[in-house]
Amino acid sequence: MSKLPAAGRHQNIVSLVNGGHGMSIAAMAEAFGVSTETVRRDLVALERNGALRRVYGGAIPSDRKAPLEERVLMERAGKQAIGRRVASLIEADQWIFMTGGSSVLAVAEAMRDGPTVSVMTNMPAIGEALQAGQRHRVHFTGGEYNASAKMLMGDEVFDAIENCSFDLSIVGVYGLDERFGLVEETRHNMRLKLQIVSQSRDAIYVADHTKIGAPGRYQSIPFKDIGTFVTDEQLAPHFTALLAEAGTNVLYPDTAVNSLPAAEAHDHE
């Protein structure tokens, strides 16, 4: 492959890493006709933007872009802790929408033996995690199946939720941007989350620490509309301040605080 400008090289590195599930620095340097030091600088920049994850000698797909079967293994302990925290907030007989994503799947796993609820989702794996029909009722939206994300996509998803009024939506976070709030990579997911939240009495947003500060192409939920945010590690001070100013309830695993605004919760730490 001939030498490319940095922007083009970055795009090709991401495509190769995501397509091959891992590629060495030496192989990338040879492929792009640049030095290994140049590739290392490229990987630092791409990891900072959430496009991939650096590992010894190379890179692998990032948590956000990797296939679901890989994402569920990344930051697994943190996601399980988030799942248990959110499951502790669920009440019997609620009508809940659960978006796709590895963190939301961890919530479903934690909800399995909890209060009986009815769930709608565009992620079939969530129904399996809840053991649909044995304890909980699960409704799938319909739509075209995306094999990598393990989610149903398309107009059928929006048709399924058009006339629904949910007690609660549990929303996976693609990225929390310090300027734009919650962001998404695809227009479909941006539209879906906006619509779900508008049709829910309450919403809980879930994100492991790798999503904090990660960018996205589309703004979905601004800070002022983030009611409850659950994450696995202490937020950086500026994100704590932004969420506190918005009046968001920031919850961490294994804490007793259920409803303090972020500013009050921070005062009690």
Describe this structure in words.
The longest helix has 15 residues, at 6-20. α2 (25-32) packs across α3. The strands form four sheets. A seven-stranded parallel β-sheet has the order 6-5-4-9-12-14-15, sandwiched between helices. Strands 1-3-2 form a three-stranded antiparallel β-sheet. Strands 10-11-13 form a three-stranded antiparallel β-sheet, with helices on one face. β7 (144-146) and β8 (151-153) form a beta hairpin. It has 269 residues and is an alpha/beta fold. The chain has helices spanning 6-20, 25-32, 36-48, 68-71, 76-87, 102-111, 124-129, 155-161, 187-198, 237-246, 262-267; strands spanning 23-24, 52-55, 58-61, 95-98, 118-121, 137-140, 144-146, 151-153, 168-172, 175-177, 181-184, 203-207, 218-221, 228-231, 249-251. The protein contains eleven helices and 15 strands.
For the structure shown, list the relevant keywords.
alpha/beta, single chain, disordered C terminus, 38% helix, 269 residues, globular, 3-stranded antiparallel sheet
Layout of secondary structure:
Blueprint: H1 6-20, E1 23-24, H2 25-32, H3 36-48, E2 52-55, E3 58-61, H4 68-71, H5 76-87, E4 95-98, H6 102-111, E5 118-121, H7 124-129, E6 137-140, E7 144-146, E8 151-153, H8 155-161, E9 168-172, E10 175-177, E11 181-184, H9 187-198, E12 203-207, E13 218-221, E14 228-231, H10 237-246, E15 249-251, H11 262-267
Parallel strand pairs: 4-5, 4-9, 5-6, 9-12, 12-14, 14-15
Antiparallel strand pairs: 1-3, 2-3, 7-8, 10-11, 11-13
Helix pairs in contact: 2-3, 5-6
